[in-house]
Amino acid sequence: MGRVTSSAYEWSTRHSVLTNARRTAALVNVLSEEDTGPEAVAEVLRAYGERGPLTLTEAEVSALREVARELRTVFAADGTDAAAEALNQLLARTPGALRLSAHQGGTPWHPHLDSSDEAPWGEWFLASSCLALMVLVWDQQRPPGGVCAADRCTRVYLAQGSGMARRYCSRRCATRSRVAAHRARS
C-alpha cells in the first residue's frame, strides 16, 4: 500500500474539490471582464496551483471566456434542480470519460473528465469545473453558489457552510447593499 507523502497531501489540498470550485468562481469572475488578458488569467491559475510557465494566447482566453459564460448558468440557477440540470447539460459536452491521471507520475492520482492530459484550456476548464461543481451539488444537495445580489455587481461566489443562504460575493457588497437600503428608507 502506498504511503501518502507530505508533498502529495499538500498537492491534494491545493487540488481538492473545494479548491477547484473556488478556482472556477475566480476564473468566471476574472473572465467576465472583457478586457482581461492572458496574464490576468494565468495569475488566477497560478494562485490555484498551476505550475510551470503559463503562456496563454488570446484565442485560449477567448475559449476560457466562453466556458466561463456557460458556467455562470450554474451559479445563476434558481434552486438545486436548476443547478443540476445546468450541470448535466454542460457535462454532456465534456469529451472525455471520467478517468484518473497522475500526469505521467508528476502528480498524485486525481480525476479528469477532459479528453487527455494535454487537452486545450477551454476543454479542461469546462471538464474540471463541472466535476468540482457536480460533487458540491451531490454532497450538499443545493446549488454550489450564486451571483451577487448587490446592485452593479455580477461576481459569482461559492455558498459554503450551513446557516442562512448567502446572497453577496463579499462582506463589502453586503454592507453597501444594507447601507443603500437604509438610506433609501430614510
Summarize this entry quickly.
The protein has 7 helices and 4 strands.
Structure description:
It is a single chain. With 186 residues, the chain is mainly alpha-helical. It has one domain (6-185): Jann2411-like fold. It contains 7 helices and 4 strands. The protein has helices spanning 6-14, 17-31, 38-47, 58-75, 80-91, 121-140, 171-185; strands at 99-101, 110-112, 145-147, 156-158. The strands form 2 sheets. The chain has a two-stranded antiparallel sheet. Helix 2 packs antiparallel against helix 3 and helix 4 (58-75) packs antiparallel against helix 5. It is globular, with a radius of gyration of 18 Å. The mean pLDDT is 89. InterPro entries: ABATE, ABATE_dom_sf, Znf_CGNR. This is CGNR zinc finger domain-containing protein. Residues 147-185 form the Zinc finger CGNR domain.
**DSSP helix count?**
7
- The average pLDDT score comes to 89
Task: Write down the Rg.
Answer: 18 Å
Query: Any low-confidence stretches, pLDDT <50, length ≥5?
Result: none
| The CATH homologous superfamily | Jann2411-like domain
Number of E-type strands: 4
Domain Zinc finger CGNR: 147-185
Protein name: CGNR zinc finger domain-containing protein
InterPro entries: ABATE, ABATE_dom_sf, Znf_CGNR
Pfam families: ABATE, zf-CGNR
